[in-house]
Amino acid sequence: MRIPDRPIWIDGRLCRGEAAVLSLFDRGARDGEGLFETLRVYRGRPFQWERHLERLVVSAAELGFPVPPPPSTLLGAAEEVLASGGLLDAVIRVTVTRGIPGRRPGRCGCWVDAEPLGSRLWRGARSGSAAAIFSRRAFHPGSLGRHKTTSRLIYHLARDEGRAAGADEALLVTAEGAALEGTSSNLFVVIGGEVLTPPLSAGILPGITRALVLSACAELGIPARECALPREQVVGADEVFLTSSAQEVVPLSRVDGREIPERSVGVRLLEAYGGSVAATV
Ligand SMILES: Cc1ncc(COP(=O)(O)O)c(C=O)c1O
Q1: Which domains does the chain have, with CATH numbers?
Q2: Which of 19, 68, 233, 251 is the most exposed place for a label (fewest CB within 10 A)?
Q3: Cα 99 to ligand 1 centroid, rounded to whole Å
Q4: Where do the TM regions start and end (predicted)?
Q5: Residue 122: helix, strand or coil by DSSP?
Q6: What pLDDT digit, counting tens, does each position of 54-106 carry?
Q7: Measured from the CB, is residue 149 less than 6 Å from ligand 1?
Q8: pTM
C-alpha cells in the first residue's frame, strides 16, 4: 500500500506523504499515549467543533497531558488541511499525544488530517441495510473507555472481526453479556416505542452524536433512557441503531444474522439530526 499523499498538519506545519512524521520518542508513537477526535465536515464546515474540542481538552487535562494547542490554532489547522485537500464533505481527525518525555517545556505532539467522506462511510450506511455482529472478544472499557484514546487495539481487533463477517460494525460485549457500544459508535435499541441506550456509567465513550440524539428524543417527545442492554435484548429489539459523528444515525437491518424488523424511530432521529446539521453549517 502506498503512503497516503493527503495534506496533514503536524505540530504547526503542513506536510504530505513521507514527510508526515512524528518522533519515535513521542509517547503517542511509542505507547499509544494519545487522544483524538473524529468529526464530520459538511460543506467545508466542521460540525460540533466546540463539543469535540471540549471532550479532547477535558480528557487531556484529566490524563495529565501537556496543554494542547489552543482550539483556535487547531481550527486554523483544520481549515488549512481542508482547503489544501479541496475537501468539502469529509471526516477530520485531531490528534494530541503526551509528547516527548523530559522535554522542557512539556509539549504535546499534535496533528490534524482529513479524509474524503466517501472513504469513511460504512457500506451499509450508504445502502440503507447496515449490519453488526457481536464481537466474541470480551470487552471491559475500564477507566479509559470514556476517553477517546489512540490505544485502539482492542477496538480494531473487534472491528476486524466485524469486517471478516461482512458486517459494518462489531458490538462490544462484556464477559457478563452486556452490550455496551460499537467499536466506533454508540448503541441504541427501541423496545415498545422506548429508546434505550447503555449508561455512561458503564465506562463507554460519551458520544457527541449520542448526546444529540438523546436531546432530539426529548424534543420530539420520544421516550428515551439509559439502561443496561443484555445482548439478547439487542437481538430481540424492535429496532437497533448506531450513532457516531462520522456515520450519523445508522438503523441496522441485521444484528448477528438476525433481521431487525423496524427502523422508523432511527430514521426519524436521522432526519432530526440532518435538520440540526442543516441549521448549523
Ligand atoms: C468507542 C466509540 N464509541 C462511540 C463513538 C461515537 O462517538 P461520537 O458520536 O462522539 O463520534 C466512537 C467514535 O469514534 C467510538 O470510538
Answers
A1: 8-119 (3.30.470.10), 123-280 (3.20.10.10)
A2: 19
A3: 24
A4: none
A5: coil
A6: 999 999 999 999 999 999 999 999 999 999 999 999 999 999 999 999 888 78
A7: no
A8: 0.96
